[in-house]
Amino acid sequence: MDLTLPPTVTDRAFARLSEIGAGAQGKALRVAVEGGGCSGFQYDISLDDPAEGDLVLEGAGERVVVDEVSLPFLTNATIDFSEELIGARFIVDNPNASASCGCGTSFSM
């Protein structure tokens, strides 16, 4: 994996964080990778307080944070927000994933 390219966050994701008032509450969108899920790894996406050692991505007065352990799994990934008829959610487009499940929250490398 090329560790020189951090993940990026779309304007749409930052706009959604602004709509829900994450920054006004002092929160950031945390994107983490954990073991588990049907493909081996899964994304854990939540509103959280930034912690020491986190990579902080900022835009439109909002923040997205990635911890040091998850960062290698998210190199060159794009964090976006999707709103469809079946629901709305933050999504990760991860070029490092060799396979992913149908729900999009689990992947393998």
TrEMBL record:
Top-rank lineage group of the source organism: Bacteria
Gene3D superfamilies reported for this sequence: HesB-like domain
Domain Core: from-to ranges: 8-104
Coiled coil: none
Pfam families reported for this sequence: Fe-S_biosyn (PF01521)
GO BP: any one term: iron-sulfur cluster assembly
Alphabetized PROSITE patterns for the sequence: HESB
Molecular function in Gene Ontology: 2 iron, 2 sulfur cluster binding; 4 iron, 4 sulfur cluster binding; iron ion binding
Residue spans crossing the bilayer: none
Name of the protein: Iron-sulfur cluster insertion protein
